[in-house]
Amino acid sequence: xxxxxxxxxxxxxxxxxxxxxxxxxxxxxxxxxxxxxxxxxxxxxxxxxxxxxxxxxxxxxxxxxxxxxxxxxxxxxxxxxxxxxxxxxxxxxxxxxxxxxxxxxxxxxxxxxxxxxxxxxxxxxxxxxxxxxxxxxxxxxxxxxxxxxxxxxxxxxxxxxxxxxxxxxxxxxxxxxxxxxxxxxxxxxxxxxxxxxxxxxxxxxxxxxxxxxxxxxxxxxxxxxxxxxxxxxxxxxxxxxxxxxxxxxxxxxxxxxxxxxxxxxxxxxxxxxxxxxxxxxxxxxxxxxxxxxxxxxxxxxxxxxxxxxxxxxxxxxxxxxxxxxxxxxxxxxxxxxxxxxxxxxxxxxxxxxxxxxx
Length: 358
Known about the structure:
The radius of gyration is 20 Å and the shape is globular. Helices cover 29% and strands 25% of the residues. The chain is built from twelve helices and 19 strands. It is an alpha/beta fold. The chain starts with a strand and ends with a strand.
């Protein structure tokens, strides 16, 4: 079977091979035929070592496809079912799950350390316990979430990560209020989804901030009221808020420097929401006086900050109703053999979301 493999952490190119086998099928597992998978910046972060992931590995965690087979003990799934891949399934039994914070369940992360592929040369891991840059994958039954027949695979794939993360940051975590002012720093696929979430919530002003002109133009099509380069944010803050700062600022880059910029452009008593996934050695700093005096809420948002199954349902409902646009988020469609070109397009900001069709 074909798959795109990263041999060593730090390499920029994937090798598309045809000698990969999905392994681990058995009780509680399902075998999936991947039909579409999105390129998420987290895949690149794992490739360059920002996010921890054993190598060699197959990137990809934003996928959708069909169930080929189900193991013993699996209920609610049958061969032929259309599903999206949930890379962070809830175990239902840990303290986080019992508190209703299923997005903080660690069961899915533990899967990342167990190989679910092999080649003649040895074991191969799947990113985040999945690995969707491949034709087939074996995952736990909780990773396969049924989708309605009217949802295309490529749309379902986006909902599996980027859309859920961005929408949830605005709706679940920050709980943007109607009539408020919002700034979103970083306007890739997750940032665009955050903008759409803020629009759904009724924000009056939504300022998109990105150094790439094409992404700023795209942000306006998805609900931003204006879009500026990073050096224009201070002026937007002055014009829109009288210099006070925005009610909500979303950092969707994953770097301490942009998080600090976001903090400085959040009004006193406002909300800074950290959505980007950053490195363990990149430290965000605030001094104790400003932390006390400004009373700004700093809210990290993990996978949309809420129950992902409910978030999937909400995203589908909003898409069906025309309240969010997911079709136009897919700016490029490629085959697996073109994955390295697609990665370069994402790195330069040329694409919002690329869909690999398998």
